[in-house]
Amino acid sequence: MPSGDRRPALLNFASDNVWGASEPVLRALVDGNAGPLPSYGADPLTRRLADAFAALFEHEVAVFPVATGTAANALALSAALSPFGLCVCHEEAHVIDDECGAPEFFAGGAKLLGLPGTGCKLDPERLAATLDGLPRHEKQMPAEIVSISQATESGVVYRPEEIAALSAVCRARGLVLHMDGARLANALVTLGCSAAEMTWRAGIDILSFGGTKNGCLAAEAVICFDPKLARTLGQRRKRGGHTLSKARLIAAQFLGYLQDDHWLANARQANAMAGRLAEGLRHVPGIRLAWPTEANEVFVILPDEIDRRLRQAGAVFHPWSGRALAPETTVGPGESLARLVTSFATEADDVDALLRIAAPSGGIGT
Amino acid sequence: MPSGDRRPALLNFASDNVWGASEPVLRALVDGNAGPLPSYGADPLTRRLADAFAALFEHEVAVFPVATGTAANALALSAALSPFGLCVCHEEAHVIDDECGAPEFFAGGAKLLGLPGTGCKLDPERLAATLDGLPRHEKQMPAEIVSISQATESGVVYRPEEIAALSAVCRARGLVLHMDGARLANALVTLGCSAAEMTWRAGIDILSFGGTKNGCLAAEAVICFDPKLARTLGQRRKRGGHTLSKARLIAAQFLGYLQDDHWLANARQANAMAGRLAEGLRHVPGIRLAWPTEANEVFVILPDEIDRRLRQAGAVFHPWSGRALAPETTVGPGESLARLVTSFATEADDVDALLRIAAPSGGIGT
Amino acid sequence: MPSGDRRPALLNFASDNVWGASEPVLRALVDGNAGPLPSYGADPLTRRLADAFAALFEHEVAVFPVATGTAANALALSAALSPFGLCVCHEEAHVIDDECGAPEFFAGGAKLLGLPGTGCKLDPERLAATLDGLPRHEKQMPAEIVSISQATESGVVYRPEEIAALSAVCRARGLVLHMDGARLANALVTLGCSAAEMTWRAGIDILSFGGTKNGCLAAEAVICFDPKLARTLGQRRKRGGHTLSKARLIAAQFLGYLQDDHWLANARQANAMAGRLAEGLRHVPGIRLAWPTEANEVFVILPDEIDRRLRQAGAVFHPWSGRALAPETTVGPGESLARLVTSFATEADDVDALLRIAAPSGGIGT
Amino acid sequence: MPSGDRRPALLNFASDNVWGASEPVLRALVDGNAGPLPSYGADPLTRRLADAFAALFEHEVAVFPVATGTAANALALSAALSPFGLCVCHEEAHVIDDECGAPEFFAGGAKLLGLPGTGCKLDPERLAATLDGLPRHEKQMPAEIVSISQATESGVVYRPEEIAALSAVCRARGLVLHMDGARLANALVTLGCSAAEMTWRAGIDILSFGGTKNGCLAAEAVICFDPKLARTLGQRRKRGGHTLSKARLIAAQFLGYLQDDHWLANARQANAMAGRLAEGLRHVPGIRLAWPTEANEVFVILPDEIDRRLRQAGAVFHPWSGRALAPETTVGPGESLARLVTSFATEADDVDALLRIAAPSGGIGT
């Protein structure tokens, strides 16, 4: 298969954000660069983008493109949060753990409450019990929004009916349901459902739609399915410094990204490579999967010796927290939990090269 | 002069942000897209950028690239402002007037105090008198930082000695001096001095270095000359949602921008076109300049008839506020104040086409 | 007249907050101290207070007692302000000048815009022109609330029809109208109108009702005439640290304050003493009133010699800013502007003692 | 002993804030009311208070009196917290659970991280492990302060050496240690140590000194042992609306409170009554103590039948959370956890009346 001009195999599984833009996205960005266009989002590219999202979601939407996922999440949460309100999420959610307080900042001092849950998933019953157990005094911050990540931080995927169950809990209590869709494309490809089915039809009110991890350079958007949630976002984005004067930068990337289902193709490649990697690793003696591989992230419990061998060979990947492991899954002495991420740019050769190092005695990939 | 493949003349003088990236910047962005790189600013491009800025400013600097000027300004001010502090600036400064409260947001509720001044310049004596006249009680917010724009919002330029005079006022009172350098390149080209002379040597402590208006798509940076001011900026940027995962996007643009003094060439072209436009317009009967044209913005007082004629011909430019006019300059009945902005992409043909419409009876451009 | 046990004349005209509580207020506080009561405002005193305010204002009201005027103002403004919103007030309003940024803090980064105006009054035409002149872009903070002080910081009083004119400007543009009633009692006594006429009937939506300056020790309340504005105030007060566990402290003071129109008697005494003082001072050669004396504050332009003589005799009062003087009133060389405040505790002897020092040659008070 | 004019027994054990001020405190408040005094804390009572605290703590201190414990805590934490910083406390601490986000608000969006621990105590080893386990990236909020409550929310008391152990963990990592001393007097009486030994000598840097729960009406103070922490508190208090114009209100209460060790006498009475109550209850069949009674709060696991009987007899007390129970202590079916609080005003008759209802068959108190 590998032809003469293929790049050498790369062992970089650190994250899906180590790669630049995929080729059609980059081309769209270059094409969008030409000529004078109105600034601050009044350009035709940004307008076309709004139409493209409405078509994609089969729903009227308000769209607020921004350059980072942290901005999208913080703005989305702030749209529904009082400064004294509570956002409930998984205890390892990106919004609570990896954004240096951006949601608290944008919401003016609100609080995030993290719940445990295997695979970084929220469980509807536990969510309901938590919400119903919160004291109802003026002393306590009232829950106002629930946030879930799709795919989750453990690389697993909520089914539409699981989202609907969480939404039912939220709606019965007047709460907004937010989806952090940093890896939404990967989840969509796995589920084979429509974007509508995975979002508003399942009860999502507001979405952080991610492009950066799946082939854009910097393209994210807050998508409001409920127009009430869009009311303050223009000003919140501006005062957050997230309104690009040359808004075409993000709009062009997204147009290239969405065109001809390029984004789904990217996600399909990333997921396929993750599947290949997971399948290979789980057959290596001593390695087991921490969670099922349902998107483009592979989480494995590695014997230290294999970890060392991989790193000595130049493989790049991150150790990971085991807080969201199922009770029956444990990381023993002499082992560690690791995350390996694939992307649109990962090739079968890259995966196979890693697998060969993990299991040098053969057996794998043969 | 115009060859067969020249683009037709364009009458868009709305802003220097209506254009995309200049060619070398775009090329650098495309080149920087290749291959896997560490994310969140650990990539070699971002590291090279820090060196490039240190060389440019002949000074050790801490550099925080961001995607918008509003973010750069708000972060820079927040580095020196208590949540109960006061930032003094011109009453028409971008930070007080055009950022929907971003500085107040990032600084946690601080206040901006706008002073009058011809050409949007702060006057050292008035600044000193204002600072010394502020009550010194716990009830009042203490002044902590002064912000100036270079070039100003009226398109004029502070000389290094003018900056030094403002800095002396600040330093004598323990205040930080910030420069909003959204159009710093244009000012630099006008003055013919070094970047060091215009900034830290004149007493600037922290700078918003702008690239977007002068040939980048989205590239700005907070530059700290005083390392103490850099202490919290990493976390402030992250929680502001302004730390790009693919930091190469901004770093690559800036590297192309700075390479071979391309940025100064861009600014020179913009300034030359502004000069040509100003020179042409001021000879049109009925038109007079509101302020001297010292960068890439031309402010003219236009008879309504000419304004109408220009707009009917498709010219695009913005009406402007006259608050910073010199006392002796007034906008009479049947007149209005207008801003026309040129950029690296403006060509002599564009200028001349506009001038022909402004003065159809000839005399201009002949 | 003076009996043997009268206290000696006191020359303290620094402020109406230099005195403790008036006797009926103190007695009510002591009486309210007895026995166990539910905490956090569930006590019967606080409930009676809500009824008392409803009766006083002839309107259903939501009442939020707090201990300081700054808290009342900041909470009231935050009830109507987005974190990106604008509050318009006089440029010398207490909220913009004397609260160390409390409104900005409680409103999460909002901005206050100060307008000039003689006697610290907002003029409806200027207000309308200002509001209509604000740019309507996402870059600019939208005006959401207007705040006036009654009596003003210059000691003059808005007539109900003046308030109604401001309210008309606000309502036509969807803005809320707030009254800082730190000296509301003094204004009410001057006007001889009902509390309803001066507030909601004239178009006030939300009020800071002050008691501290007029005979309480620490008793203020946010009064919402529009129930929508009350929606978040319980939580905002709690997270501001302004919900007293022993809420009886404020409620008891207020009950004593309102009982048998004691508060109006206090204000009548303060105003009468201010009138006596103003009448005396304006007949002293070289002294003139800066603004009419319409409440309990006397503002005079004093020759330096008299100022010195008064201070040497132990008189206490504050120099004042002349920014709100009428154009025709100026403070000449050898003069200064001074504020003298009377209170419920000021006696005729105090006033006369000061007048005797101001005009030692006689003529006054004879 | 009981004379004819004793009040009837009262069954109110809801909280120590259901009572007004104790008699000496009230008298001091009334005495402090007389005469004109400078406002905003420049009065001699406030100055005497600063001296009194310095003497009490045998240390130079900066003192910031405020009216509520929430204000004291939020201000104290904000003195040491960046807006992106982390405060570590017990998961049931008042600051994280009962202040509607006041610390987050005053610190501009900071986060509180709650740790488990029996009796609402932080354990030094767990604290160290938590702090050392926090990721050290820009993405994560850095720990900056640790807060403990003395007595804890479970009514137990940290020994000086326990505080010193926590302080050692903090100091080794550059963190500030804060004590929420809402019930500091009760703890002090239990321990029999000096105020210095329990605070700065054990490593406390900043303290919320509570008076309200132990005989004041509204008197709390932030006490800074480290002068650096006092630097911004004047302005933070003012912009929080917590600077009383008639500062004498709080100062007078505190002077009466501290005079002749009245505060310790109050705490001794409250603790003695709690001891009597605990001793009585634990001998009632079916009742057991949830935690040892070390201050003025008694936590018991009650059979539903006794709970019902007490409430039917008019007893007032709150159900409580069992999260801080020791692993071996469980609340079974047909039981609930309840908190009963005593105060300076609780009398032996009150306790005995309750005990008689709890164990009507006798046996108790005999």
Structure keywords:
globular, four-stranded antiparallel beta sheet, 15% strand, 366 residues, 38% helix, 2 domains, homotetramer, Aspartate Aminotransferase, domain 1, seven-stranded mixed beta sheet, Aspartate Aminotransferase, domain 2, alpha/beta, 11 strands
Strands of chain A, total number: 11
Fourth CATH level, the homologous superfamily of the largest domain in chain A: Type I PLP-dependent aspartate aminotransferase-like (Major domain)
* Helix/strand order of chain A, N-terminal first: HHEHEHHEHEHEHHEEHHHEEHEEH
- For the record, the CATH architecture of the largest domain in chain A stands as 3-Layer(aba) Sandwich
Reported for the largest beta sheet of chain A, the result is: 7 strands, mixed
Question: Whole-number radius of gyration of chain A?
Answer: 21 Å
Describe the global form of chain A.
globular
The percent of residues in helical segments of chain A reads 25-40%
